[in-house]
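Review form for a predicted model. The reviewer records the input and the model, then writes brief findings.
Reviewer: anonymous (R2)
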Amino acid sequence: MVIFTPPCAPIVLNAYSTVPLLPELRTSVLHDYNIGSFARFHQPESVISIHDRPDFHGLSHLEIRIRLDSENKKDKLAIIDETTAESHALYPNHGEADIGEEVESFGPHYDPHNPQEPPSGFGLDWTKREEVNPLPELLLIASPGEWVWSDDPRARREANPFPHYFSPDPPAAVKLTARAASEAGLVAGWMPWLYGKPARGQRVEMRQQVDWYSPKWPWDGVTMAGGNGTEVTTAKRRPRIMQRPCQTTRRAPSTKKTKGPGLQRQKPSNVTATA
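Model under review:
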């Protein structure tokens, strides 16, 4: 039986509301965010913790940031306001450590007195397979009889996701058998194998992409994950060399700044974007 290895802890995003948080708005935010963070696939890549503080109602995004800074809560956060229900979007607000990078990514002119920019998001429907690419890959351990190894050039090329960036191809490749992948809700696909040929009775660790249409990943209950309103501070990460490989998607190397999964992202509060 395929065993999913313990995933890395999901990224936690604290969200605060500038308006009274009615139950239907909370449910809508949870539903949209959890779809975008792939919450139905084993474990979400990130979770949202929603807070409805009456003392924040009616405040500007900047005033909330200043208030939280004074409480020594300087992590990244998101803002829910009167536009969220219609736009299905959250406003990100970065903490002290990365505010310079955030401003730089949208332009050099930063004026805290400027009005909030209008929504600007991907416009993707995260419930449609054809609009979501790439899909998450889950880290797993396959038992003997559930995996296939090959050093065939075609398999090695398929295991190289970005041949224009990475050369040569990996020395070998592994994947689940079609049956094992189907039973686990995954799609069998060649993945890089950098070691010697595994013994016939050996267990093999690899990543495989989720099967979007598998009944193993139902949509029911997607609104139930996260959103308990508990204050959460992101834990310090271990040095990269000590980290276990986490569940993730393989993306081409890029110099562009990315906008994470979940609800559409708005331009940061009080930032004037220039062309």
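Findings: Confidence is low (pLDDT under 50) at residues 97-113, 224-245, 251-275.
Further findings: Residues 23-36 form the longest helix (14 residues).
Recommendation: see findings above.
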